[in-house]
Write a structure and sequence with these properties.
Elements (H helix, E strand, L loop, with lengths): L7 E2 L1 H9 L5 E4 L3 H6 E3 L3 E2 L7 H7 L6 E4 L4 H12 L5 E4 L2 H7 L4 E3 L6 H22 L5 H17 L3 H7 L17
Helix pairs in contact: 6-7, 6-8
């Protein structure tokens, strides 16, 4: 079974597409907090762990592609694969993600600053490795296994491009955005 190549578009090409009068559907698959911090103008947030590709494909009003963006491209690629698995091959990943979009000087919406999920994973993994080493020396040598477990998890994440720690951290309360109350109009 051959896998089809992932269709991509540069951030500048996407903006030119919008300027030509088209209204492309852009989905940002980062966590709500990452999205709130900064996102491409016109993107809507559907976090990867909540993405129902089949439902979104069915609800789509036109036959144009669905464009997907994340921080640097990894989660967008996963989302594109989810759409393909759901029967919608008309998906395109925005190359380099929001990071490349911002670096290109394209229009973004800024909000409350937040730490990226990828940075949170690096901090958590490094902290657990250091904790395992410290506990291994101070408490019991078997606790060195904690560092080995995290190392094995990082190797698995690299091979499969699936990060269990990232999926867990994405669900943490600090990566969620509380629903803001809707303002009521006086009649």
């Amino acid at each position: 079974m051959s896998q089809t190549a992932l269709a991509t578009i540069s951030p500048k090409e996407f903006v030119e597409l919008k300027r030509s009068g088209k209204t492309p559907d852009l989905i940002d698959v980062r966590t709500p907090v990452e999205y709130r911090s900064i996102h491409a103008e016109g993107a809507r947030n559907i976090p990867l762990d909540r993405l129902d590709a089949a439902s979104i494909s069915q609800e789509k009003q036109d036959d144009g592609p669905i464009y997907v963006i994340c921080h640097t491209g990894s989660r967008a690629s996963k989302a594109c694969e989810m759409f393909k698995a759901a029967g919608n091959a008309n998906v395109v990943s925005v190359e380099g993600g929001t990071k490349a979009w911002e670096e290109a000087g394209l229009p973004v919406v800024r909000g409350k600053k937040a730490m990226s999920l990828e940075r949170q994973v690096r901090i958590a993994a490094g902290s657990i490795v250091l904790l395992g080493i410290g506990l291994g020396f101070l408490v019991d040598e078997y606790l060195f296994g904690l560092s080995g477990f995290v190392g094995a998890g990082l190797v698995f994440a690299g091979i499969t491009d699936t990060c269990g720690m990232g999926m867990l951290l994405a669900r943490m309360p600090w990566n969620q955005v509380a629903k803001e109350p809707q303002s009521q109009c006086a009649s």
